[in-house]
Amino acid sequence: MSQKKYETPLLDELEKGPFPSFVTEIKTAAAKNDSANDLLGVLEQCYRERRTHWKHGGIVGVRGYGGGVIGRYSDVPNEYPGVAHFHTVRINQTSGFFYTAKALNDICDIWDKYGSGLTNLHGSTGDLVLLGTKTDVLEAIFAETSSRGWDLGGSGSSMRTPSCCVGPGRCEWSMIDTLDITYSLTQEFQDELHRPAFPYKFKIKTAGCAVDCIASVARADLSIIGTWKGDIQIDQAEVKNYAAKGLNIQAEIIDMCPTGCMSLNNGEIVIDNANCSRCMHCIAKMTKALRPGKERGATIMVGSKAPFVIGALLSHVIVPFMPLEAPYDDLKDLIRKMWEWWDEHGKNRERIGELIVRRGMREFLEFLELDPIPQMVFEPRRDPFYFWTEDELNK
Amino acid sequence: MADLPQRQTDIGPPHYMQFLPPVAQKNYGQWKYHEQLSGGSMVHVAESGDKLWTVRAASPRLISTDFIRGLTALADKYCGGHLRFTTRHNVEFLVSDESNLKPLMDELKQKNYMVGGIGDGISNIVHTQGWVHCHSAATDASGLVKVLMDEFADYFTGTKTLPARVRFAVACCTNMCGAVHCSDIAVVGIHRKPPAIIHEDVKKACEVPSTISSCPTGAISPDPANKSVKIKADKCMYCGNCYSVCPAMPISDPDNDGVAIVAGGKIGSLRSNPKFSKLVIPYLPNNTPKWPEVVAAFRTILTAYENGARKHERLGEWIDRVGWEKFFSLTGLPFTHQHIDDFTIARETYRTSAAFKW
Predict the structure, then answer these.
(1) Less Cβ crowding at N or C end of chain B, within 10 Å?
(2) For the segment B182-240, what is each residue's pLDDT rounded down to a tens digit?
(3) What's the CATH code of the domain at A247?
């Protein structure tokens, strides 16, 4: 292998400093791989010219799937032939991003054989991303990975690879089995994941509690967020331990409670649970002393996305509390109905959150057979302009 | 390729349980509490009394197979092979045997891994592909992450702490594959001029109706004479969504592209509702390779927050308490026409009260 040697004075600057360097990573891969070497060259040119040198993705993939591989081509292929094709393969990550050394080493072996040797752990949606390969080896990569138990993730107008927080695998606050819900939904909706048939993308993220480590409320068309009913469990001995260790319970816990439902009485915490909004502040700061109530479930929210087209949206409540036990049939039925409505009315590249804005919550809720309740809104409307149906007039 | 193994389709990901350390399998869903031990380590304790230690280290996310093998070798040596990644791209070594904790941390230190990312500081930066791999990138992402994390390394390692966690994000265009819209301080790549239209290519590569409907401001209309589209330049706010739909409308412009800084967003519901980030600096140049203006802006914002916030108050909560007018006076950042919203929620953001601070 006789490699072109690129001078990279700008990128070399990014090898200095304490944080691990992506430039060092590209150079490491480049020592063994021509594509990675040409990536180094083209990236230096990007830094010099302050612009990208990638073209739009083309349609590439593996037989029988409509997604999972993102076509990527350089706009300067003659200068950097190693990145003329530089496609991304999305491997569906494990629930909670748990791995064994052996599993990752297997993937590294495959990737060294067929790809650039560069990866993203992980992509923004959650996939294990293999970065940079050529069209003619895609089937081989798929055969090697799928025969070892790994499938592709989603891309395009499909259900995207669901992802979740660490959940019951290692967290005391996980009110629902985020790992299993994510696994179960992914398995249930394989066809929707691999064969894009929706108006646009549909992301599902499951968070065990309102701390929302997976950014479900901001980054998922369907946000499943664990919560509880019933009283917060208090261990008053541990409350006293926190105080003894210097926690200013009045200032840091009681006074910061957004609903003012807590008080301190002779060193003991008193909670007016009927007025608690389950925000998680007190529990997160006093994890040994305060624990969520015992009836567990999830709040189901819908519609969040980045700014295109009407501005960024956060997900909003449609089901305040849903118990979630395997096999999660209620949740799966709800998802199917949502998709049915979106499929019927959604325009090309219209996310479900945008469609709800366009056609109104009433139609969406009626289709899902959900009754309106105050928990769905911050406040009722201010204007006097609203619709009545014939049925409502005749009541 | 006859020597290839038999492919399988629609198998989904492997079942998660096999990857959990035995102690996590045994105590699945039965965790009682956790304690932070240092800037990069913590212990989770189960109802049974069993413990699982976690050591977290930084990753640049764009990593080579050699880097991964380095991680897996450490996992094999100290963790029975068990490791995971966080939603912010850090690696976590899952230690079941306490006697392995110190040797692991020593070896990480000796090999120059950056251990940290836990607690009230700055964890790793959620970010996008940038010039490494994306056609619509108005800036690079990995480079910005590198220079910001170098600058604020002490807040990652736990050497320095903050009133609460401060989440950074970088998105290389307004498509925002990174969580910029709900982060404490974030960078987003922007354009400042309308796209060009290559009429010849529109005919070949673009669907006119979907190109028109991709425009949030209705700036694009049909151009039947050219079998193409035209743009009303004064309605275009340079989002680049048309370019995503129609490759014949390139918007990249090195002399005018750059980044905007937004701040005050959050995701969790703790204390206050999730919030969007808001614009604080409308434009800074792509001054490669180190974006010094961006780093300085982050320092300015972080310093004002550090000086003004109460314990546990997130950056956006501090700003909500003191007021945005105070934020601009405390940081000294200029307030411009670009800061006042004229998009879909504009009227909601106008101050409809005579009570404000000087």
Answers:
(1) C
(2) 999 999 999 999 999 999 999 999 999 999 999 999 999 999 999 999 999 999 999 99
(3) 3.30.70.20
Q: Cβ(B319)–Cβ(B328) under 8 Å? A: no
Q: How far apart are CA A156 and CA B319, in angstroms?
A: 38
A204 & A243 share domain: no
Nearest C-alpha in B relative to A205:
B87
pLDDT at B1 over 70: no
**A251 and A179 assigned to the same domain:** no
Q: How far is B299 from chain A (nearest CA, A)?
A: 17
Closest-CA residue in chain A for B134?
A: A54
Test A170 with B52 for CB contact under 8 angstroms.
yes
Contact A195/B at CB under 8 A:
no
Nearest chain B residue to A176 by CA distance is: B29
pLDDT in tens, B8-52: 999 999 999 999 999 999 999 999 999 999 999 999 999 999 999
Q: Whole-angstrom Cα distance, residue B61 to residue B125?
A: 9
Nearest to B13 among A51, A56, A186 (CB): A186
Are residue A138 and residue A208 in the same domain, yes or no?
Answer: no
Residues A37 and A126 in one domain: yes
The model's pLDDT over A201-210, given as tens digits with 9 standing for 90+, comes to 999 999 999 9
Q: Residue B329, class by beta-carbon neighbours within 10 Å (0-12 exposed, 13-18 middle, 19+ buried)?
A: middle
Within-domain flag for A2: no
In a domain, A152, yes or no: no
Interface mutation target, options A7, A11, A23, A98, chain B, most CBs of B under 10 Å: A98
**Residue A331 reports pLDDT greater than 80:** yes
Window from A17-31, A300-314, B16-30 with minimum mean pLDDT: A300-314
Q: Which residues span the domain enclosing A139?
A: 9-147
Question: How would residue B147 be classed by pLDDT, with cut points 50, 70 and 90?
Answer: very high
**Cβ of A122 and B178 within 8 Å?**
no
| Dihedral sign computed on CA atoms, order B321, B324, B325, B330 | positive
Tell me if B168 sits within 8 A of B266, measured CB to CB.
Answer: no
pLDDT, one tens digit per residue, over B211-223 is 999 999 999 999 9
Q: A140–B86: do the CB atoms touch at under 8 Å?
A: no
Interface confidence, given as ipTM, is: 0.97
Q: Is A221 in the same domain as A239?
A: no
Instruction: Read off the tokens for B78.
Output: 């100290």
DSSP state at residue B85: E
Using an 8 Å CB-CB cutoff, list chain B residues near A183. 12-13, 15-16
Which of B47, B109, B133, B151 to mutate to probe the A interface, most A CBs <10 Å?
B133
Domain count, chain A: 3
